[in-house]
Amino acid sequence: MLKIYPKAASVIDVTLPPYNAKGDGTTDNTAALQLAFNENVGRHRILYFPPGTYLVSATLTWPKRWKDHENWGFTTLQGADEKTTILRLKDGVFPNPDSPQAILNCGGFGSADWFHNHVRNLTFHTGSGNPGAVALQFYANNYGAVRDCHFISGDGQGFVGLGLAHRDMNGPLLVRNVTVRGFRIGVRTGNAVNSQTFENLTLTGQSEKGFQNEGQAITIRGLKSDNAVTAISSYGTLTLIDATLTGRGAASQLPALVNFNGGRIFLRDVTATGYKRTLGDVATPDYAAALRLPADPQTKFLEYCSHAPTSPFPSPKTSLRLPIKETPKVPWDDPKTWANVDSFGADPTAQNDSSAAIQKAIDSGATTVFFSGFYRVTTTIIVRGKVRHLLGVGAHVDYTQQAKPTFRVADGSAPVVSFEHFASLGSAVELATKRTVVFRSLEVKTVTSQSNGDVFFEDVTTNALHFRNQRVWARQLNIENEGTHLINDGGSLWILGYKTERGGTLIETRNGGKTEVLGGFSYTTTAGKLAPMFVNNNASVYAFFSEVCYSGDPYTTLVQETRGTQTKQVKRGEGQTLPYSGRL
Q1: What is the four-CA torsion angle of 272, 276, 277, 281, rounded to 10 degrees?
Q2: Measured between alpha carbons, how far is residue 510 from residues 45, 489, 513, 582 in Å?
Q3: Which stretches of the chain score pLDDT less than 50?
Q4: In the prediction, which pLDDT does 24 show?
Q5: What is the dihedral of CA 558, 564, 566, 571, to 10 degrees?
Q6: Alpha carbon distance, N-terminus to C-terminus of the chain
Q7: d(CA 334, CA 366)
Q8: Can you give 293-329 as a three-state secondary structure string?
Q9: CA-CA distance, 563 to 576, in Å (whole number)?
Q10: pLDDT of residue 111
């Protein structure tokens, strides 16, 4: 289904004046698209590409500063559909593999405040005769995503498909539903912070490595690799679950996976065929040592961890294997049927109170409610009726947090309600319904719950969460408050890629709750002595989770676990959280 938006000042169609880009496959659009980026990046706008092939002949960039405004992120590139919307590099313009250059460089300028950037539903094609080409260099902090994109090297000779290692501190971010075809390296990641999460990644036809990780905290679920080279080479930390790795030709002399240089690795449900061995796991910094290991007929790892888990009390060594549910999708309705809150009197400049107008839009009978700008809100907005999709352009609702809470999800006819693509959603969203609620690509200060409907987070940053008897699935969750970050009281919590900052307990699980954290790390910037990293109070927890601290104040207590009335602690130097297993 094509992603089509209604006419709005915040949705910039690059084919219309003043940019007039042409998706005819022959016109050079470099100047037109660069001007569109210069004038719109950092302004909470969507740069929209209708179906077509947009030819370029030089690197497009997201600038840090343009005339009277400075860019701190908040930029979205949106194609109509990744099969029909193509950004294509002219043949023979990046011939030097020793000096790689990107079709698009999304910035990042040496500090981790490049927020809420997104690239969606586009194909990046490096043409032919471009062995120095990188299809996309993406950068985002806290929340940001590459979704539903293809990266294609026309002759297979491009340098990197998706580049995430060109600058330090890239992430946390999410890469989801991405295919890379050709290139020397399909995906390249690196540096120590801030974690990167992948789900549903397909790699085919690489000539050197499928996925190369140079020190980053990487989490991957749903990898499919079809290659004559090693599928993943990694040091740092790597979580890989639900992967199928198919080797061709020369792969018969190689490991499917290489973990080296002291890297930590967790594998679950990983199958490899056509390789000399599934895993080459060596502590040496000599990558080639893994290649020299003898053949191993084992083709499937139900579960493998490079290090034994820490367990204060006797516990199984394996993960919990909590049920994994896919994030529900809501239909992309015809924009003609959307309720644009501006049409009901809302002020997209946030100068006037838009509470009543937004409520009218929600109560209009539309299934999609569109927020095309910034909105001041002073009264709680009730999500009810037929509404199933609240969609923004990457701007703020209730930035000053005057409404307490900003939104309350009540009962309604739609079984799933999805909030998507907001820079922030005000003070809180209160769940007063048993309906499923999805939070995707946004910031919300907190979510409170009066019920036990399923909750999904995907590419979300927040301050604190507290759930009781709830089932929660999170992909790329970033929590940055000081104090207790997340409480799971008697529920089921599954996280794929969890990144945190500041001190305080990162997850407290109690009253028989079950928590599974697969990947991510604590960027401990303050108050490491404040509290235990994980608290397990008569519950079950499995975590493969690391820590980076440059302040000299890392966590003193890694785990505090209680069984019955007995409590034990694991102090720094006595154990680890890569992994930790504590189970009733």
Answers
A1: -120
A2: 42, 5, 5, 12
A3: none
A4: 98
A5: -10
A6: 46
A7: 11
A8: CCCCCCCEEEEEECCCCECCCCCCCCCCCCCCCCCCC
A9: 19
A10: 79
CA distance 460 to 424: 10
Residue count of the chain, please give it.
584
Cα–Cα distance for residue pair 553/48, rounded to 1 Å = 45
Give the pLDDT confidence score for residue 526 in this predicted structure.
82
Edge-first strand order for the sheet with 429-431 is 381-385, 407-412, 429-431, 446-449, 464-468, 486-489, 507-510, 534-537, 557-563, 566-571
For 106, 209, 224, 321, the CA distances from 241, given in Å and listed in that order, are 29, 19, 11, 11
Give the residue carrying structure tokens 């069984």: 563
CA 451 to chain centre: 27
For residue 214, what are its two tokens?
């140079």
Contact (Cβ atoms closer than 8 angstroms) between residue 447 and residue 429: yes
User: Using an 8 Å Cβ cutoff, are 257 and 282 in contact?
Assistant: no
Judged on CB neighbours under 10 Å (0-12, 13-18, 19+), 92 is exposed
Cα angle for residues 110, 458, 117 (degrees, 5° grid): 35
Q: What is the pLDDT of residue 119?
A: 98
**Bridge partners of residue 134, in order along the sequence:** 102, 160
- pLDDT value at residue 65: 85
Helix %, strand %, coil % for the chain, to 5?
5, 50, 45
**Spatial CA neighbour of 62 closest among 39, 93, 90, 80:** 39
- Strand, helix or coil for residue 414: coil
Rounded to whole angstroms, the Cα distance separating 299 from 256 reads: 10
pTM of the entire predicted model: 0.97
Cβ count near 72 (within 10 Å): 17
| Per-residue DSSP letter, 482 | S
Other beta carbons less than 10 A from residue 139's beta carbon: 23
Nearest Cα to 202, choosing from 220, 228, 184? 220
The residue with tokens 């590139």 is: 77
Cα–Cα distance, 577 to 545 (Å, whole number)? 6
Residue type at 433 in one-letter notation: T
Q: Other CB atoms closer than 10 Å to residue 37's CB: what's the count?
A: 24
What pLDDT, in 10s, does the model give residues 316-363? 999 999 999 999 999 999 999 999 999 999 999 999 999 999 999 999
Residue 520, amino acid: G
C-alpha distances (whole Å) from 235 to each of 231, 263, 421 are 14, 4, 33
Q: With the CA atoms of 404, 174, 142 and 507 taken in that order, what torsion angle do they form, in degrees rounded to the nearest 10?
A: 70
Residues with Cβ within 8 Å of 20's Cβ and at least 6 positions away in sequence, in order, are 32
| Cα gap 203→183, rounded to integer Å | 10
CA atoms 177, 12, 86, 160: torsion sign: negative
Q: In the structure encoding, which two tokens stand for residue 509, read together?
A: 């699980």
Residue 110 CB coordination number (10 Å): 10
pLDDT per position as a tens digit, 123-164: 999 999 999 999 999 999 999 999 999 999 999 999 999 999
pLDDT number for residue 141: 96
From CA 32, how far away is CA 441, in angstroms rounded? 28
DSSP 91: T
173, 120 Cβ separation under 8 angstroms: no
Q: Which two tokens stand for residue 67?
A: 């005339």
3-state secondary structure of 453: coil
